[in-house]
């Protein structure tokens, strides 16, 4: 979703801003822009489309030592140049903003009545005019931002510059993340530290409600009560260059192939030879887990599918009641919290607006504790939850989530054991699950050897308009995730059904133009699934079955079998995810879509 980068330095910062925007491209956007202050003059340049297009039109006049930049994902108003950020008021003040100002209509009316003329349809432009108005009343840039903030309802991460105060950026955070990057004689800010890794490894994360200003030599922060505060400086080690496809054609393919390694990283330090290491959950975790009598999972998108799989594990193996719900529904529904319920959020980014809102809501209710399964250590979900079980997927750049999902499943299986050893999981069962987890990275690597074979069948999907994905039991959410991947990146309409529901509706759609994908491990539902698939064959449907080698499927007319290596049943949902990801990937490549940044989608959805 939208991205913010800003810099104050003693050198031209236009390249730093463009590089920062490029590093945020993966989040999804449809226009981009920069505002640079040079010798007391504000220069703004915006373009619809990619950052590369913006970079091309920047000329020598677009230089400066202070500036802000933005990638916009359209919410209020179409993706046009006028609606792109930065927005301005007069010829000296510019603003970039992530999030949504909910009272923008009343602000627009008020500001219009005071003579402000709006150049865009956006909510953000009201912020620019409001700050301008407050400065006209005699306030400094910082005072004006401080006075404007209480007037804004909704979510924002924003940054403001003024040409008359050319060595300062003022920024504020409420509901949308912002981080300051500290340099030597220069300072930066961004909505995600990834944007600044080329210039610094020292970061200061703003808290909810913080207002901050950066100059070349200082950074100052005020908390929600207006008191000046110090926030810790965090050093982020590790590989800075996320813009590296490592020889793969797309980030998505690279990330699919990273899965054996990142699943291994996620297991690291959490498994003994025959038991899980509960102390790896963090201080006080055992006391919290002791209290848990039921689980409520809340998440969005792919992370929600991980939650659906976990429900089968937590109820079926751990013996604990578990409910799972998409965050956008959960947060607006009245529900009953039973005593001893653990609220579990699942999120790659840790910043998804609905999931974060659900966590904040839950903290006011009677949950016994909150735990997040998350991939970003500095994220809001991690900061605001009692416990965090980190997935070690590393930065995921492809908008369609792959390695984040399988590492979430890995972490959730570990959580299942941690909870279940207090209920239905005995030592023998725990040892069996731990053994399956130990061999999982190797099994995943074998599944990736199917790549060429899957590429071979993908072409037959490229001219289809619809596809059906079927699974039973715990493989139903895997079929859902397979369908989601296909629609996200190839734009083919794909639906998933529990195979037993086929004859209650979707069978009417089946004909010889309808590919039907089925997930068929050798489990206790295999025979039931086979009868469902015969119903498809009898109607001329084209079946593609991802089947355990021992499941007894054979290639025949209308039935293509993709043999998946055998695995322990408990980890089969993780294993079967990989061939489905490869199928979507190759179909999208055949169709020529933008695999890593599919149209209309964002990596991190920080607005409702
Ligand atoms: C967006 C992304 C999805 C992701 C979902 C939830 O829709 O495109 O890939 O699953 O948000 O994101 P989260 O970061 O909370 O897992």
TrEMBL record:
Keyword match Nucleotide-binding: no
Glutamine amidotransferase type-2 domain ranges (all copies): 2-217
Gene Ontology terms, MF aspect: carbohydrate derivative binding; glutamine-fructose-6-phosphate transaminase (isomerizing) activity
InterPro entries in alphabetical order: GATase_2_dom, GFAT, GFAT_N, GlmS/AgaS_SIS, GlmS/FrlB_SIS, Ntn_hydrolases_N, SIS_dom, SIS_dom_sf
A single BP term in Gene Ontology: carbohydrate metabolic process
Catalytic residues, chain numbering: 2, 603
KW Plastid (keyword) present: no
Any one of the GO CC terms: cytosol
Reactions accelerated catalytically: D-fructose 6-phosphate + L-glutamine = D-glucosamine 6-phosphate + L-glutamate
Residues of the SIS domain: 285-425, 457-598
UniProt keyword annotations, A-Z: Aminotransferase, Cytoplasm, Glutamine amidotransferase, Repeat, Transferase
EC numbers for this chain: 2.6.1.16
Top-level taxon of origin: Bacteria
Localization of this protein: Cytoplasm
Assembly: Homodimer.
UniProt function note: Catalyzes the first step in hexosamine metabolism, converting fructose-6P into glucosamine-6P using glutamine as a nitrogen source.
The protein's name in its UniProt record: Glutamine--fructose-6-phosphate aminotransferase [isomerizing]
Organism of provenance: Litorivivens lipolytica
Gene that specifies this protein: glmS
């Amino acid at each position: 979703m939208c991205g913010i980068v800003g810099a104050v330095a003693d050198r031209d910062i236009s390249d730093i801003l463009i590089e920062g925007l490029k590093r945020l491209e993966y989040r999804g956007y449809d226009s981009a822009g920069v505002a640079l202050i040079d010798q007391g003059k504000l220069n703004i340049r915006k373009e619809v489309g990619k950052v590369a297009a913006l970079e091309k039109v920047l000329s020598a006049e677009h230089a400066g030592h202070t500036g802000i930049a933005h990638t916009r994902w359209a919410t209020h108003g179409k993706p046009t140049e006028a609606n792109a950020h930065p927005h301005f008021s007069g010829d000296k003040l510019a603003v970039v903003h992530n999030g949504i100002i909910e009272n923008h209509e009343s602000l627009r009316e008020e500001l219009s009545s005071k003579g402000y003329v709006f150049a865009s349809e956006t909510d953000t432009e009201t912020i620019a005019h409001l700050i301008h108005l407050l400065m006209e009343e005699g306030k400094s840039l910082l005072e004006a931002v401080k006075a404007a903030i209480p007037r804004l309802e909704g979510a924002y991460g924003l940054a403001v510059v003024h040409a008359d105060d050319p060595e300062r950026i003022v920024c504020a955070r409420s509901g949308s993340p912002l981080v300051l990057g500290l340099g030597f004689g220069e300072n930066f800010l961004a909505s995600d530290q990834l944007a600044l890794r080329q210039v610094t490894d020292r970061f200061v994360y703003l808290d909810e409600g913080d207002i901050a200003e950066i100059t070349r030599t200082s950074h100052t922060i005020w908390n929600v009560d207006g008191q000046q505060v110090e926030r810790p400086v965090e050093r982020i080690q590790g590989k800075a260059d996320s813009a590296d496809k490592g020889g793969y054609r797309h980030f998505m393919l690279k990330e699919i192939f990273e899965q054996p390694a990142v699943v291994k990283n996620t297991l690291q330090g959490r498994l003994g030879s025959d038991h899980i290491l509960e102390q790896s959950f963090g201080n006080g975790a055992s006391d919290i887990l002791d209290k848990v009598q039921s689980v409520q999972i809340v998440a969005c998108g792919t992370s929600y599918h991980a939650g659906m799989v976990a429900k089968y594990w937590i109820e079926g193996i751990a013996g604990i009641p578990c409910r799972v719900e998409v965050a956008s529904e959960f947060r607006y529904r009245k529900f009953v919290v039973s005593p001893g319920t653990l609220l579990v959020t699942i999120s790659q980014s840790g910043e998804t607006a609905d999931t974060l809102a659900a966590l904040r809501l839950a903290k006011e209710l009677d949950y016994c504790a909150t735990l997040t399964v998350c991939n970003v250590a500095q994220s809001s979900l991690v900061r605001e939850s009692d416990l965090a079980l980190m997935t070690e997927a590393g930065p995921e750049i492809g908008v369609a989530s792959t390695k984040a999902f399988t590492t979430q499943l890995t972490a959730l299986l570990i959580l299942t054991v941690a909870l279940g050893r207090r209920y239905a999981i005995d030592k023998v069962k725990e040892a069996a699950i731990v053994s399956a987890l130990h061999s999982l990275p190797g099994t995943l690597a074998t599944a990736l050897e199917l790549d060429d074979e899957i590429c071979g069948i993908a072409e037959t999907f490229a001219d289809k308009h619809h596809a059906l994905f079927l699974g039973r039991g715990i493989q139903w959410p895997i079929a859902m995730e397979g369908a989601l991947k296909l629609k996200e990146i190839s734009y083919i309409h794909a639906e998933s059904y529990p195979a037993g529901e086929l004859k209650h509706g979707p069978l009417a759609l089946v004909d010889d133009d309808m590919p039907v994908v089925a997930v068929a491990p050798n489990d206790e539902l295999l025979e039931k699934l086979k009868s469902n698939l015969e119903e498809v064959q009898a109607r001329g449907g084209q079946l593609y079955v991802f089947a355990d080698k021992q499941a007894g499927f054979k290639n025949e007319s209308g039935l293509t079998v993709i043999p998946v290596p055998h695995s322990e049943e408990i980890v089969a949902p993780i294993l079967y995810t990989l061939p489905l990801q490869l199928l979507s990937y190759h179909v999208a490549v055949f169709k020529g879509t933008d695999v890593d940044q599919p149209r209309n989608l964002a990596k991190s959805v920080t607005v409702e």
